Amino acid sequence: MNITQLRDTVVTLLSASPDLIGNYIFPNGTLVPAVYVAGRQGVPTEWKAIGLEVVIQEFSRLMPSPALGKFKRRQEWTVVMVNYDTTSSNLTTAAERMATRFPDARFSFSPETDIAYGQYRIIIPDTDMGYLA
To answer: What domains appear along the chain, each with residue ranges and CATH number?
Structure first.
């Protein structure tokens, strides 16, 4: 899996009826879905998130391991979902959808803070088998 495939999968999963993804409000007032692929920089500070924000780390963490004449190249992708809406259960519903699609994922819940009303950090394993060189 690559970052484009992961992003497309997550967006399709979370935007299915009902759409759980919140919005970013740009400084000029434009609204766009609150899904961001974070590479070297995080979400721009001038963007305001409302509802459920989904941030996907652009680069996976590689974790190779040997396996009987082949190698197992394991990658782990990180997705963080943050709820900025006190009246919504979208975070729980989104986590349930993610758990159904990625049953091997590890979920870490963080309770509400002064700016967010709960968040999940999800580590999604992705294994690829190849031959040892």
So the answer is: 3-131 (3.30.2000)
Structure tokens at 79: 């997705």
Please count the CA atoms within 13 angstroms of the CA of 133 that sit on its side-chain side: 1
| pLDDT band (50, 70, 90) for residue 68 | low
**Residue at token pair 């974790």:** 63
Look up tokens 């500070």; give the residue.
45
Quote the CA–CA distance of 97 and 89 in Å, as a whole number: 13
Q: Calculate helix-pair angle for 3-15, 90-101, nearest 10 degrees.
A: 130
Helix (H) or strand (E) holding 113: none
Give the CA dihedral 33, 34, 36, 41, nearest 10 degrees.
Answer: 130
The pTM (predicted TM-score) of the whole model is 0.86
